[in-house]
Amino acid sequence: IIPLGEFNMSLMGGKYADSTLASFELVLELENKKVLEKLVSDEYWKTLFRNEIIAECMARGAESFRSAEEVLKLSEAITRRLNSVSPSVGGEKFPIRRVLFKSFIIQ
Prior knowledge:
The chain is of the alpha+beta class. It is 41% helix and 30% strand. It has 3 helices and 3 strands. The protein has helices at residues 33-40, 43-60, 68-85, and strands spanning 2-11, 20-30, 96-106. Strand 1 (2-11) and strand 2 (20-30) form a beta hairpin. 17% of the residues are buried.
């Protein structure tokens, strides 16, 4: 598991809703220890992953935080997005198994 830290962002609410403040912590569940070693060896990967997560959340907006089902969809979308930019390690095409919310608050 790799902790990615806390995210705080103001997300657009849509046509008829105000913006939403979302605060959450994420961790990555990885396929194996080789992936872990590769990703923690260079701060670049954590920075890139954080950037991709912010971009995905901004693109999806506040609606992605309105229900458990939408949060699950967001988690799956983030996993796909991070796997698309992740290095392949030891033949693992998709080194990130899933993205987990460690804490979560919306206002």
